[in-house]
Each structure stands twice: as C-alpha cells, then as structure tokens.
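Researcher: Here's a chain I'd like modeled. Treat it as a single chain, no partners, no ligands.
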Amino acid sequence: MTEFQKYIQRYLDLISSDNWLEEMKNSGNQTMEIYQQFSEQQSDFAYAEGKWSLKILLQHLIDAERIFVYRALRFSRKDKTELAGWDEELYAKEYHLEEISIKNLLSEFESSRKSTIHFFEHLNQNLLSQTGVANKNEISVEIIGKLIVGHNIHHLNIIKERYLPILNQI
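Model: Modeled as a single isolated chain. Structure tokens:
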C-alpha cells in the first residue's frame, strides 16, 4: 500500500458495515446528537492547548465534506482535471467563528450532510467507480464517499475520547 492508501485505510477501517450510505446517515445523526448537548461556552472548549475547539472541529467536518463532495462530483462526471489538496490547518485559522452560534453551525452541518447523502444516493455503480486525481493521488468516487463517513467517525471518536471526559468533569 502507498502512504496515501494507508492514510485512507485508517478511515475506511472505522466503518462498521458494508452499507456505507447508511453509516453516513448514522454518523451524521450521532454528530447532531452529540453537538446538540453543547452550550455556546462548551462549544469553545478544546481539550488541550493548541487543539481545536469543538466548534472548529465541526466547521472542519463541514469543510472537509464539501471538498470531498466537490471532488466526487467532478470525478463522477468524468472530469479528469487534477485537483489540488487543501490545508486543514490553514482553513482552521481562517474560520472566525466568534460570530456564529453552535446552533447555526450545527444547522449548516445538517444541511450539508443531507445534500451529501442525496448526491451519493443517486450515483449508480458506474459513477461510483469513476476515478480522478486529487492532491496527486488517484481515488474513486465511492472511496471518497466512504472517506467522508470514516473521517466523521474518526472525529466522533476523538470527541468521545478526549473532549467529553473533560467536559463531564467541569
């Protein structure tokens, strides 16, 4: 496996069933359930110095999903234009979320996830098998869909393991 394949596989391994579209719905619902518990003050919590706040983490999920869906759209339409990568740390520095409530951000996540699900539900196997190059790596539309799911689950696990134990003690 290439380094890219290993990187992707760590996310794919988190998907517990073969029905990744159902897992996309489930992980979105789990994200909504967890974030609905947080107050504005809690959403600004980061579990350690230099780590993202819960609010930044949610915006990261939204941005990543939008970027991945854009790639999947281009590749599913047989657009062979090579797409650039993106720097999640640079994006995080530019969020300026002070004026956006967690409620509004959560609504944005929910809308984005619904749109993502609609997009992938309407792709047949031929379209899902289309490939393209992003960040100098070839990837299929289906793997991009699965990557969205695994990436979401990865961050849910981090929230459960690193954020919630501390928040529950405060």
